[in-house]
Amino acid sequence: MIEIENLSKSFTLHNQGGATIPVMAGAHLSVAPGECVALTGASGAGKSTLMRMIWGNYLAASGSIRVGGLDITRAAPREIIALRRDTLGYVSQFLRVVPRVPTLRVVAEPLLSLGTPEAQAEARAAELLAQLNIPERLWSLSPTTFSGGEQQRVNIARGFVHGYPALLLDEPTASLDATNREVVLRLIEDAKARGAAIVGIFHDEAARARVCDREVDVTGFTPAAARGAA
Amino acid sequence: MRDFKDTALLQVEGLTKRYGARIGCADVSFDLWPGEVLGIVGESGSGKSTLLSCLAGHLTPDHGRVLYQGRDTLAMNEPERRVLGRTDWAFVHQNPRDGLRMGVSAGGNVGERLMAVGARNYGAIREAATDWLARVEIDAGRIDDRPRQFSGGMQQRLQIARNLVTGPKLVFMDEPTGGLDVSVQARLLDLLRGLVRDMGLSVILVTHDLAVARLLADRLMVMQGGHVIEHGLTDQVLDDPQAPYTQLLVSSVLQV
Amino acid sequence: MTDHAYNFAYLDEATKRMIRRAILKGIAVPGYQVPFASREMPMPYGWGTGGVQVTAACLTPEDTLKVIDQGADDTTNAVSIRKFFERTGGVETTTHTSEASVIQTRHRIPEEPLREGQILVYQVPIPEPLRFLEPRESETRKMHALEEYGLMHVKLYEDIARHGEISTSYAYPVNVEGRYVMDPSPIPKFDNPKLGGNPAIQLFGAGREQRIYALPPFTEVVSLDFEDHPFQASKADHDCDLCGCATSYLDEVITDDRGGRMFVCSDTDFCESRRSAGHRGRLSPEEMA
């Protein structure tokens, strides 16, 4: 479902003397449907960078990233938008929403953009919010005013509201209490069971051990490691 | 539902406009697809407003083509272009006063485009106006008030209703949230996002506000000195900008 | 009586030719406002300078002229214009609609149906029907050229929204031959139905605004309206108190300080003709006596 080949990435900082910083080289990764792969490595090793490249948020310098057959590195913006709508979900650590939009609406939005009727989309959103123990009185409020843990759960609900065939999870259990952590792990297990290919970053080792089939250490994708291997 | 079809709604090829020796916009090309929101960002004088005016037919470019559903809008005669301007196209001005008739009631403002395309049933026009006022969150009781009695945010929402009442396919927006308070902006952004999604609108949005661009636009074009210097998925352009100017632009903005 | 210091009908022949060209163009393009080089006339703007120039351009020595002001032959304005052409043209004048070959009017169409060969000349203060909502002349011309008349209905919409009905009661806009929207001058909308299909030539002159437009005989003229608020030619719900006519357009006349009032035909010639034919109204002097 997710196929990464010989991927490299560098940042050119034009406003700092044009310095070019290579951050990744020769990355390979393959994730099958129903499989969950954890990205590991020290902070700054490039876990988030790789996730963002799969999401299409960072441009690749070379190599390819195929998600559901579409090569992200060569796709037109509208193809990536369509991919994000239908195929690829992303639970980031940060909730970025239009202020004032009610939580229920924020969570239902991915379904609405797929053309799901409003009532059906909101029913599904309500189901997830209830599962994640967001009190119903908060559903009509904007999540921008919520605590960090609540925002994180809203983000998760939004990421799981549609059954994406591929999912990117960035620290999905961080800042959650035991009860909600358990809910999220079940959601991940359910997603795997229906055949979703998942790439995740989990600092929570027990969670990683429970839901992940494999670990891939991104330290191996740093330019230095690539030079060593060659 | 936003349905990406196989043909572009708008195809722009080599659009160039000069003001004497000065460049307004130079060699701009892009395709806009049904249901897509294209943001054009850049500082004042970057050429984004000139480009928008050329696209909307308010200015005549020196070179280039603007194909709407395959028809060259620059080769159209003026009547055809004006018909397009009140049916398939709409234009939302930064200043509501430029887009509203200030001496005409809110209902009359919304109804004008309907009447312009031949609506002759008062009851039906009024019903459509009432419905649209509700959609832009203006109380139905204000239907007979004139826009000058409205707040800036309400005026802008009224301008949007007036433009969308005939169900256009392509909307040009020039800094639609400019000059509004931040809280009012948020409400307008939310409204616009919903309308874009529900009506499957294609939008060309000119803004200098990167936060507005991030929330509304699918794609971004960054302009500098009349040229498009970067073009891509909105979050990619903002989070991994490639051109020196874009990096400067993004880093100059307070994080939102 | 003719004052020979002036050319026939006051204007020089070159000017009349210029005006006739404008009139002919107006007749060729019904409802279209033709610009013309309006001359200074020996009367103030607003007193019919446009109408007088059109009349002067149409008159021949054989013509018989009638002049009415809101239906009346005997008001200062009507009398002055009649005298003006008696003196500068030596033409016959009349107060009888049927006897006149040229009728200059301010704000009315005579009750008595016009016939082929007659010319009705209207005095027009503001010829542009779109001016109410669009002050730019460049834009209104473009709107006429491109038949963009939605704005006219916005005006009617505003009427209904504010008053519950189309409250425009005079200068009610019309569409001519399915093409140009035209201001019929401030005639009461009661007169609008007489604009269309009329056997006479109708000419409109706006002196200050320098525009001439025309309706050739038997032109199709439709008053603008909404399907659910159709045009209605309204008048005061009374009979004429002098001649008893139930179908003519009436003026309300205050008769004393105690609320006394009467309704009389605005068309004085029409009313007098009926009375001489023996028709009587509620307050006819003969009956009061």
Automatic annotation (TrEMBL), chain A:
Could you tell me one molecular function GO term of this UniProt entry? Answer: lyase activity
The alphabetical list of record keywords is: ATP-binding, Lyase, Nucleotide-binding
Q: Which InterPro entries match?
A: AAA+_ATPase, ABC_transporter-like_ATP-bd, ABC_transporter-like_CS, ABC_transpr_LolD-like, CP_lyase_PhnL, P-loop_NTPase
Domain ABC transporter span(s) in chain numbering: 2-228
This protein's record includes keyword DNA repair: no
PROSITE patterns hit by this protein: ABC_TRANSPORTER_1, ABC_TRANSPORTER_2
Any Pfam family from its record, for instance, is: ABC_tran
Decide whether keyword Cell membrane is in the record: no
Q: Which SUPFAM superfamilies match?
A: P-loop containing nucleoside triphosphate hydrolases
Q: Which NCBIfam families match?
A: CP_lyasePhnL
* Protein name per its UniProtKB record: Phosphonate C-P lyase system protein PhnL
TrEMBL record, chain B:
- Pfam families xrefs: ABC_tran (PF00005)
Q: Which GO terms describe its molecular function?
A: lyase activity
Enumerate the PROSITE patterns for this protein.
ABC_TRANSPORTER_1 (PS00211), ABC_TRANSPORTER_2 (PS50893)
- The residues covered by the ABC transporter domain are 10-250
Could you name the domain of life of the organism this protein comes from? Bacteria
User: CDD domains attached here?
Assistant: ABC_NikE_OppD_transporters
Q: Which residues form the signal peptide?
A: none
InterPro entries, per database record: AAA+_ATPase, ABC_transporter-like_ATP-bd, ABC_transporter-like_CS, P-loop_NTPase, PhnK
Annotated membrane-spanning segments are: none
> Carries keyword Calcium?
no
Listed A to Z, the keywords are: ATP-binding, Lyase, Nucleotide-binding
Gene3D superfamilies reported for this sequence: P-loop containing nucleotide triphosphate hydrolases
PANTHER family, alphabetically?
Answer: PHOSPHONATES UTILIZATION ATP-BINDING PROTEIN PHNK-RELATED (PTHR42764:SF1)
Write down what this protein is called.
Phosphonate C-P lyase system protein PhnK
The species is Thioclava marina
Automatic annotation (TrEMBL), chain C:
What Pfam families does its record include? PhnJ
> What EC designation does it have?
4.7.1.1
What molecular function does GO assign, one term?
lyase activity
Question: Does the keyword section mention DNA damage?
Answer: no
Q: Which InterPro entries match?
A: PhnJ
Top-level class of the enzyme under EC nomenclature: lyase
Q: Tell me yes or no: is 4Fe-4S among this UniProt entry's keywords.
A: yes
Enumerate the catalysed reactions: alpha-D-ribose 1-methylphosphonate 5-phosphate + AH2 + S-adenosyl-L-methionine = alpha-D-ribose 1,2-cyclic phosphate 5-phosphate + methane + 5'-deoxyadenosine + L-methionine + A + H(+)
Alphabetically list the UniProt keywords: 4Fe-4S, Iron, Iron-sulfur, Lyase, Metal-binding, S-adenosyl-L-methionine
Purpose of the protein: Catalyzes the breakage of the C-P bond in alpha-D-ribose 1-methylphosphonate 5-phosphate (PRPn) forming alpha-D-ribose.
Q: Which family does it belong to?
A: Belongs to the PhnJ family.
Q: Under what name is this protein listed?
A: Alpha-D-ribose 1-methylphosphonate 5-phosphate C-P lyase
